[in-house]
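Figure 6 in text form: structure in, sequence out.
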């Protein structure tokens, strides 16, 4: 008998409402114009100047006119380079570690707030702030012109920072006034009269809370920091007696250091009790010392006495040990020279190639477009024509592209692009003549002024003759009127500009998003797969908005006893959220140096922007089109729900947005209430028995009345927790791995943004026992939002705690890991590097695979683990995605095992076998003792189908060898038949034979509109003849060992020596969901594109088969236009969603077995409500199977 569904049911549906307008990320497939992919030809400048460095900032360790230094809390030495116009950083031993802070004029002074290692530099009348992000990385926070109250502020002016009030004090060489600047935004805090005609240099004695200023008569004056401009009690006035106008520094004990051009003098600390001090102790001169305009003193260690003296002309820094009061013991230490050990500055070509690699691996972009690639300089060559596999081929060849040393002749590139789109080259034109909705583009990237014939007439001809629009991106070069003329002719408005690799990624990505926005327009909705959770229907709905975030809704409906849906809805979480002030939302995240969220769950706030900003921009510069000055604050407030980008055009950017909840796209909600786990004293292999043994009943009792919440991810970049009773948002968590993605929300257009993928995966929730107690844990991937998973402890649903987050960056070749406290560590697996196996997520692709949490035995001991596929690789690379991860849920998510899957696409074979880059975007299906009494083992046998259609079995049971892997069946996929598997398999046990059956179908979800006589998708029902045992010697089979039921209608019978059955789908039909089993029948949803009009949606169908024989048990039902989800069964009813369903027709083509309710189709199953098969499931907060 089928395991009975729980009394309550939750139908998750996703309704997408579109208008015929723009699109920011690739949309759900099968809805007409969405399926007609845009064509994008990337034209990369390979002229000689592309070998130049991206930035004027040289490699770490380089010195160019070192003028002043200061030391941070980690004892790193920051040097402001006057002629180089940047800051270089060395560690205390003299090793160069980074450079930052490129400015347009000459910076002369530097000061560091060691409480947070914020750095302040000054050039002329400009003051700049840089905030520390990750290890040894600083990024610009603000740059302000100093007010006139601060004086004329020439190069001789000085700055000093108070680590208590975080104010920056500015002295002036020609005025009696000085001023204090606020660290938060660079605004004036106060100005004051020092009572002297000029103040040369200043420093802060932090121990005694005084500002020390040298006046124009070479005297050291004291001012009370807490009562400016008054002097402190027992103040003293000492004269240096020599020309010491270059700098003042004070160590941790209050000793004062004054430099001349060739000596450093040390004076004793002021004693406020006796009014004594500032007496000369001695001086020190070292070889090579000279041209001194500033010094730095190490204040991080008591009694350090370490002084760093830059030699402006000699391009070096002298390190002098002046510890103690005995000048004879002072020593000259190491010399920091201009050569450092840091990474060499990256060239423009290398940066451009890195960016193209990133973009070609982003399914959010490539889902909506076919790509091609051209290199050009003096000549032009198409390296990859625009085609379906373009992204894959570009990624494979891009490392071989290099600068050819020629000139910058864009007209040659445009002429070749026109010939290509016209179909007059050796390649066919990618333009589909039958699809008038298709959009075609070129994106030209260049770093210099144009040479030769102007391309503009051909750019205009491209548009007038072929409808091809042209974008231009200036990289490390402002093209002025020339670039503007190109963009005008290309019908794209204005040129785009980028200054470094990160801004190029944002800018070029923005150009592609604009292409997709114009290409992908819709009028039909889509419903995502359904799962059973409760006695209400939760329907996720989003309204598409042009160049804005999509308006998301989560509606709760009551479900009547007869299975009908009751209206109106109980609540809509989107409407509820709109009634909330953005300032009152509880939005939290974690990160190094972030405010502790425990208690208030609200640390994603403007007051913490100095810390958050680094993570928002991944340590890089703010893209120029973000309106740099206030960009981080605008972005943070926008994420919280304010109208920072003035959507309504009223000029008010501090009011709430009209709609705050973004779309809930691929994420399925989960309910968290009282602990649901069952108990057993007899089923020794089951989790129920384990729970009984570990005191789970007490845990259930203690948490019986905890707040009942709905958790779901949205493309706001958050995991939301809504009150199940009221629909109010209780809290929202931003995974730290997502923070840097927010920088891609702003775009070049006014009052507009890009819609991104955020928390696009579905949360899985499980009660697990570790560290001596039961806990309710949540684990979720980002789905299309990124290569990352995160986990929370939600035992107290109102006070969640972060457990861990990990993220893979396959281009930079780093794994980033955040521990429970949010501390981030970076794990390098680049060339020559060996990554710690605990954090080896280097094979993790886009986190589509919903994890399964289960208990297994490892070396005889119980261990709670999570198992998930390595994700999607966008079918472009073999480097990641093709594998399974088993992670330790008891120890911070560390890797227990990474199991690689073989790829039939052997790149070393000749010819290449199937040209499919394998991956595992689907979830795994574990069969446990809680699923079926036949499973007499601890742990699970885990089944799944990979992207290229192979059916696998992974041993996580106590029988046989742990982690042993075998594949049971091969669907023989290749690039032409397009047999792709992106959904889970379904499992069932035949009540008669006790054999385990696995069901799945094929169809490329990224190419739903594709039509070809070679497309040959299939449906499969495959037996595991060894279940419940694990037989390591099992040999995989193909369809030749199965019964072909395609043309059979009766007398279907799979013989005992056959491995199962298969059914050939009609030409161009594709499966659009995982199959569902009910009452000895298996249900498949399919999609057929519209051959007559590719710009119109195709048709959805449902087929039903006998689960053991493969015979059809119902004539195929045409469900309507659009894409159908899988089915959910409850109380004799069947529910599925359809993107094109309409209430205009209550039944489908007069079929009384199916009725339409909004975008939900309600049908009667074959055979009615009775059930007589067994469908194994792993139980957690929602029935996963």
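Output sequence:
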């Amino acid at each position: 008998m089928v395991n009975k569904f729980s009394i309550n049911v939750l139908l998750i549906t996703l309704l997408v409402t579109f208008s015929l307008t723009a699109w920011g990320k690739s949309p759900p497939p099968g809805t007409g114009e969405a399926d007609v992919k845009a064509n994008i030809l990337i034209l990369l400048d390979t002229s000689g100047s592309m070998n130049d460095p991206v930035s004027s900032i040289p490699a770490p360790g380089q010195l160019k006119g070192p003028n002043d230094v200061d030391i941070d809390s980690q004892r790193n030495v920051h040097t402001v380079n006057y002629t180089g116009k940047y800051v270089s950083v060395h560690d205390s031993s003299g090793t160069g570690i980074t450079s930052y802070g490129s400015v347009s004029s000459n910076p002369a002074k530097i000061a560091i707030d060691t409480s947070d290692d914020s750095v302040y530099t000054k050039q002329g009348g400009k003051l700049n702030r840089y905030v520390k992000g990750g290890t040894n990385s600083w990024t610009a926070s603000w740059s302000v012109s100093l007010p006139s109250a601060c004086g004329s502020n020439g190069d001789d002016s000085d700055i000093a920072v108070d680590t208590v009030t975080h104010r920056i004090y500015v002295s002036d060489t020609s005025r009696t006034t000085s001023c204090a600047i606020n660290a938060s935004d660079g605004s004036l805090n106060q100005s004051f009269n020092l009572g002297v005609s000029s103040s040369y240099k200043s420093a802060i004695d932090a121990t005694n809370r005084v500002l020390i200023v040298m006046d124009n008569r070479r005297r050291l004056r004291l001012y009370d920091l807490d009562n400016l401009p008054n002097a402190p009690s027992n103040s003293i006035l000492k004269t240096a007696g020599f020309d010491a106008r270059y700098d003042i520094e004070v160590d941790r004990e209050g000793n004062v250091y004054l430099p001349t051009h060739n000596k450093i003098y040390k004076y004793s600390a002021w004693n406020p009790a006796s009014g004594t001090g500032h007496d000369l102790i001695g001086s020190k001169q070292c070889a090579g010392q000279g041209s001194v305009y500033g010094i730095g003193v190490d204040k991080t260690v008591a009694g350090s006495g370490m002084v760093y003296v830059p030699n402006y002309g000699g391009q070096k820094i002298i390190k002098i040990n002046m510890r103690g009061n005995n000048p004879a013991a002072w020593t000259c230490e190491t010399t920091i020279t201009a050569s450092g050990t840091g990474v060499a500055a990256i060239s423009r070509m290398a940066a451009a190639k890195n960016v193209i690699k990133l973009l070609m691996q982003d399914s959010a972009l490539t889902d909506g477009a076919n790509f091609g690639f051209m290199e050009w300089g003096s000549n032009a060559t198409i390296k990859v024509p625009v085609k379906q596999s373009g992204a894959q081929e570009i990624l494979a060849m891009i490392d071989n592209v290099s600068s050819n040393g020629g000139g910058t002749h864009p007209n040659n590139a445009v002429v070749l692009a026109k010939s290509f789109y016209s179909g007059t080259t050796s390649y066919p034109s990618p333009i589909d003549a039958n699809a008038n909705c298709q959009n075609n583009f070129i994106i030209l990237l260049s770093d210099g002024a144009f040479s030769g014939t102007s391309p503009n007439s051909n750019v205009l001809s491209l548009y007038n003759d072929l409808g091809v629009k042209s974008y231009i991106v200036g990289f490390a070069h402002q093209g002025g009127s020339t670039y503007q003329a190109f963009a005008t002719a290309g019908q794209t408005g204005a040129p785009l500009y980028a200054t470094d690799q990160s801004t190029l990624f944002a800018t070029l990505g923005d150009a592609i998003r604009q292409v997709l926005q114009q290409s992908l327009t819709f009028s039909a909705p889509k419903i995502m797969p359904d799962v059973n959770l409760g006695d209400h229907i939760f329907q996720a709905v989003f309204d598409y908005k042009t160049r804005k975030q999509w308006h998301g809704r989560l509606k709760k409906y009551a479900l009547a006893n007869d299975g009908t849906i009751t209206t109106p809805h109980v609540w809509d979480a989107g409407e509820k959220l709109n009634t909330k002030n953005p300032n009152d939302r509880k939005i939290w995240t974690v990160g190094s140096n972030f405010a502790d969220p425990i208690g208030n769950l609200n640390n994603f706030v403007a007051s913490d922007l100095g810390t958050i900003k680094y993570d928002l921009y991944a340590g890089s510069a703010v893209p120029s089109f973000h309106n740099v000055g206030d960009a981080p604050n605008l972005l943070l407030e926008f994420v919280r729900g304010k109208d920072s980008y003035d959507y309504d055009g009223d000029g008010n950017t501090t009011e709430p947005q009209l709609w705050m909840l973004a779309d809930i796209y691929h994420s399925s909600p989960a309910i968290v209430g009282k602990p649901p786990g069952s108990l057993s004293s007899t089923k020794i292999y089951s989790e129920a028995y384990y729970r009984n043994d570990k005191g789970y009943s007490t845990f259930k009792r203690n948490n019986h009345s905890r707040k009942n919440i709905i958790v779901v991810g949205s493309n706001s970049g958050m995991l939301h927790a809504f009150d199940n009773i009221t629909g109010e948002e209780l809290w929202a968590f931003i995974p730290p791995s997502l923070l840097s993605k927010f920088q891609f929300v702003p775009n070049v257009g006014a009052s507009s943004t890009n819609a991104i993928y955020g928390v696009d995966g579905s949360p899985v929730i499980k009660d697990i026992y570790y560290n001596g107690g039961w806990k309710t844990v949540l684990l979720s991937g980002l789905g299309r939002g990124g290569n990352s998973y995160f986990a929370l402890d939600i035992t107290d649903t109102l006070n969640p705690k972060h457990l861990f987050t990990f993220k893979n960056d396959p281009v930079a070749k780093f794994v980033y890991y955040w521990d429970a406290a949010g501390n981030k560590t970076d794990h390098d697996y680049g060339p020559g590097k060996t990554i710690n196996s605990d954090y080896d997520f280097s094979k993790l692709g886009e986190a589509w695979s919903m994890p399964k949490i289960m208990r297994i035995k490892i070396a005889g001991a119980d261990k709670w683990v999570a198992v998930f596929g390595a994700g999607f690789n966008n079918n472009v690379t073999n480097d990641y995605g093709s594998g399974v991860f088993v992670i330790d849920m008891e120890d911070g998510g560390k890797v227990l095992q990474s199991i690689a899957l073989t790829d039939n696409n052997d790149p070393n074979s000749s010819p290449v076998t199937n040209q499919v880059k394998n991956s595992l975007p689907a979830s795994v299906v574990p069969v446990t003792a809680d699923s079926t009494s036949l499973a007499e083992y601890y742990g699970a046998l885990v089944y799944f189908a990979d992207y290229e259609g192979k059916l696998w079995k992974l041993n996580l049971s106590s029988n046989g060898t742990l982690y042993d892997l075998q594949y049971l069946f091969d669907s023989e996929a290749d690039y032409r038949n397009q047999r792709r598997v992106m959904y889970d398999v379904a499992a069932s046990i035949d009540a008669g034979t006790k054999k385990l059956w696995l069901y799945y179908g094929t169809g490329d979800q990224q190419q739903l509109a594709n039509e070809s006589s070679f497309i040959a998708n299939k449906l499969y029902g495959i037996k595991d003849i060894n279940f419940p045992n694990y037989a390591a010697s099992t040999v995989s089979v193909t369809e030749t060992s199965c019964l072909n039921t395609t043309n059979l209608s009766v007398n279907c019978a799979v013989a005992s020596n056959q491995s199962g059955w298969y059914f050939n789908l009609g030409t161009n039909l594709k499966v659009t969901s995982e199959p569902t089993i009910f009452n000895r029948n298996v249900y498949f949803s399919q999609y057929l594109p519209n051959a007559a009009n590719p710009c119109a949606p195709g048709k959805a169908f449902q087929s039903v088969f006998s689960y053991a024989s493969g015979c059809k048990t119902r004539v195929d039902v045409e469900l309507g236009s659009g894409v159908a989800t899988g089915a959910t069964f409850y109380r004799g009813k069947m529910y599925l969603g359809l993107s094109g369903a309409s209430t205009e027709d209550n039944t489908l083509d007069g079929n009384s077995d199916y009725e339409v309710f909004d975008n939900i189709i309600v049908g009667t199953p074959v055979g009615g409500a009775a059930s007589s098969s067994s469908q194994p499931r792993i139980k957690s907060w929602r029935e996963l199977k």
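Caption detail: The radius of gyration is 33 Å.
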